Amino acid sequence: MRDRPRPSGVGAVIGWTALAAVAPGAAHLRAGWRRTGLALLSGYAVLLLALLWVVLTSDLGALAGQLAASSSNVTMVIAASAVLGLAWFALIVHSFTVMNPGRLPRAGQAVAGSLAGLLAVTVLLPFGLVGQSAAVSQSAVTDIFDAPSTPGPGGGGTGKPDDPWSGRSRVNILLLGGDADTHREGVRTDSINVASVDVRTGNTVLLSLPRNLENVRFVPGSPMARRFPDGFRLPVNPDGSREDLLFAVWEYADAHPEIFGGRRHQGTRTLIDTVGYTLGLKIDWYALVNMWGFARLIDAIGGVTLTVPQDVVFGRYNEGLVKAGTRRLRGADAMWFARSRTNSDDYTRMGRQRCVLGALLSQADPATVLSRLNQVATATKELLRTDIPRPMLEHLVPLVLKVKNAKVTSVQFVPPLINTGYPDWDKIRKVTAKALRASAAPKRPLTATAAPSATPGTTLAATPGTGDTATATGGPGTGEGTASARTPRPRASATAKPDPSAAKGITEGCA
User: Within this chain, do residues 134 and 229 fall inside the same structural domain, yes or no?
Assistant: First the structure.
């Protein structure tokens, strides 16, 4: 039936048209189009109930992973956004039409028509933003995860759908901070960490190797091992600097293809194998982060809040200063805080870098990322380089979300735990193995131990998803640790405590 009189005022016409934007069919019911109105309202209710069911019953992390893993899924999202946007636009136009605006005075028709047109365009914006966000994310994921399918954790592809990890209980990912810049050739890995993640619980051990590790040993039988049978040793430069430390392995391998029978770009694989051999682990994939890309990412989210305990001088001629205090830092200042070498050693810098990374992870909440998605996606494309195959994102994204609420234990191989000039390779592997066993133990979540000794030196930090931190301290002989709880602190801030001796490990890098 369409015999009910239409509202005669401009306010009524626009009001019912606007109501139709959030309750499709309302204007049609008011105008007497009962069947159409009921059909629209019923369809809208079914759509909302279906969406609510998906949210309540689905693993949103798995859904996000599935979207990221397949370009066709993202294309479907873009297409669905376009279709729904056009449908809502048509709905607003038709809702305005059935209100019979022709009965309004000429001036009223002009005002009502302008407002209805503005409303119709406005309802398109959310759908357009969803489509644009999906397209931007698609471009970023394609640029970053453009590697072909490489062997997965089990070495036989990306794994079966029911067991993507091919029977493995842990996944080991090499996390590198690249010290690359426009004025320097090659890739120097300023930060070297391995994240070993329990695929069932998400419990993670973060193993940090110092960049200045000397006499690095290579996988027996490898080209680098044949070139350096007694360890990575080169003549010292005239200025006293060294180019035969762990951080230079990638660059050296890339610069000497003759070692590999003329094959170029062997630096990545050489460093992956070397770090894995050093720790006694099988490294599945790597992710290289450009440290200055972090500065762009921090700027993209509007800065990061840090507590700087004391003034940090930076620059070749000490021309810069990051002043002490708690405040929001821009990307450049945050990176100088993390990377300044002035009045600092490598171990203190490692701690400050971990502070910046931790603050970034805790403060880059979903709302902030979504509100600045274009800037974040652009910065991320310049930030990250990895060999993780895109199909594995379907499984890695849920795993990463699981890690956020799991136990994270950090082990930093710094003096006095090890002597970086004459490393005890067996001890490094034993400490690694014990930390992994402790991380997997269900009954002792805050204890991670090394080998027997009473001398303090090893520091392991267990960080549950609640933000609490516990530390276990053992000795350079990798002795049994004793756990001590620390007062919980807000996750939104990170504090650096430079420790020139680095005797207390990674937990001294943040307060």
Answer: no
